[in-house]
Amino acid sequence: MGAMLYVDRTGIPWRYLPHDFALWETVYGYFAAWQKNGIFDQLICILRQLVRPAEGRNGEPSACVLDAQSVKTSANVPAAGQGIDAGRRGYCFAASTPGAGALWPLCDPDTPDLDEDDDGSEDP
Length: 124
Fold this sequence. Notes:
The chain has a domain at 3-7 and 29-54. The protein has 3 helices and 3 strands. The two termini are 17 Å apart. It is of the alpha+beta class. Strands 1-2-3 form a 3-stranded antiparallel beta sheet, with no helix packed on it.
């Protein structure tokens, strides 16, 4: 778990994990399995229900703040290559409850799983 937190905190690629930790393949294998099995989602729920009451709040948030970002395309891209990505369906973004300082992932149920085609052969 310490190695996973290190990768998350520093933003380094898995392959650059310092030698103080287990081999990156081992750490990533556990990470991928835990993510697939919903372990991190369960941890988020448990932590939310511990942190919010400790702050005098209800364990379940009643409101959230949503933010979006638009990125302009380059003027060097032909007009035919600009516009809506027809292959992208649905949406996926993060929400934050006021004062909580934590992000909760939100996805449209029709959004395909971004990892479903990942065979694990490439460095994430």
